[in-house]
Amino acid sequence: MPEPSPLLRRLFAVMAGSALLGLSGWLASGRIRNQAHREALSALAAVLPPDRYDNDPLADRIRVIDEAALGSAQPMPVLRARKDGQPAALVIEAIVPKAYAGPVRLQIGVDRRGAVTGVRVLEHHETPGLGDRFETDSGEWLAAIRGRSLDTTPTARWTVRKDGGDFDQFSGATTTPRAILERIARVLEFVKAHREALFADEADIP
User: Fold this and answer.
1) H/E element, 11
2) Could you give the 3-state DSSP secondary structure of residue 138?
3) In this structure, is residue 6 part of a structural domain?
4) 3-state secondary structure string, 148-195?
5) Each residue's pLDDT tens digit, 136-171
6) How many folded domains does the chain comprise?
7) Which residues contact 49 (CB under 8 A, 6 or more apart)?
């Protein structure tokens, strides 16, 4: 069998090198996606404890449009948590359009009984200091919401004490906490009305 020409040898070398580069890139992108997925699940623990589910809520998701409930005319993500194949909780994103300094984006966990498992602020435009009061669920103000439901706290009481509600306002500021509480109450009403349908819809393709 004749020896390959120098040109063919160079061509084979280039092809082999390209294949190796492609394989390396594919492996690297897979590692990056896996790391991002792990980080997203870790962040989810702020609103939904990991012991509440055994599926992958990031993959079991739908998008819902309900401006009155979720504060946006755009499709909003809803993650479904299940345990032993049964509905366990929902994690819903919602917009608070009437906050003091601009819209606030929330992530709200609601268990199958309709109780809040956690609330996280994903984005806000409040001034430093004021925003710190609710920026993470480790703050006292957001922590006080955990475990509440429409059964324990009727809709009319999902507001600040100044307005006759059950929740503290911030010193010198009521607009944003009032708006956040109103949005959470609307999300709880939405879940109560549509829980079965939310779990029954086919999941989006990730």
Assistant:
1) helix 6-44
2) coil
3) no
4) CCCCCCCHHHCCEHHHCCCECCECCECHHHHHHHHHHHHHHHHHHHHH
5) 544 678 888 999 999 999 999 999 998 999 998 875
6) 1
7) 117, 118
Is residue 16 assigned to a domain? no
Residues spanned by the domain of 57: 50-200
The encoded tokens of residue 3 equal: 């020896």
The bridge status of strand 116-123 relative to strand 61-64 is: unpaired
**What contacts 142, CB < 8 A, 6 or more positions away?**
118, 119, 120, 121, 134, 136
Own/partner pairs, 7-15, CB within 8 angstroms, 24+ separation: none
Prediction pTM value: 0.79
CB-based contact 78:92 (threshold 8 Å): yes
What angle is formed at CA 46 by the lines to CA 39 and CA 167, rounded to 5 degrees? 155
Task: Identify the bridge partners of residue 118 per DSSP, sorted by sequence position.
Answer: 109
Measured between alpha carbons, how far is residue 25 from residues 18, 21, 22, 30, 31 in Å? 10, 6, 5, 8, 10
Task: List, for residues 173-190, the tens digit of each pLDDT value.
Answer: 788 888 999 999 999 999
